[in-house]
Amino acid sequence: MAPTYNVASSYVLSVMPLFILMGMILFYSGLGKDLFDGADRWLGHVRGELAMTLFSMVYYI
């Protein structure tokens, strides 16, 4: 019984559904696209803009 509880109470298994839920909310609400577009406008002139945009988006979320 103890190994089953240890697997079910694992931190990774509890975080994964919430991470997927957050991604779905960002996608269907359009907020993810708005955040990416804003970061692209902010860092669009910098060399390596895609990497910087992704980094800034992850940092602020």
Would you give an account of this structure?
The chain has 61 residues and is mainly α. It has helices at residues 2-8, 11-29, 31-43, 49-60. Helix 3 packs across helix 4 (49-60). The mean pLDDT is 78.
Strand content: under 5%
Rg computed from alpha carbons, rounded to a whole number of angstroms: 17 Å
Question: What is the typical, i.e. mean, pLDDT?
Answer: 78
Helix coverage percent of residues? over 70%
Number of helices: 4
H/E element string? HHHH
Structural class: mainly alpha
Shape: elongated
Low-pLDDT runs of 5+ residues are none
Main beta sheet: none
Q: Give the number of DSSP strands.
A: 0
What is the end-to-end distance? Answer: 38 Å
Strand and helix layout:
Layout: H1 2-8, H2 11-29, H3 31-43, H4 49-60
Helix pairs in contact: 3-4
Task: Compose a concise summary of this entry.
The chain is mostly helical and 61 residues long. The chain has helices at residues 2-8, 11-29, 31-43, 49-60.
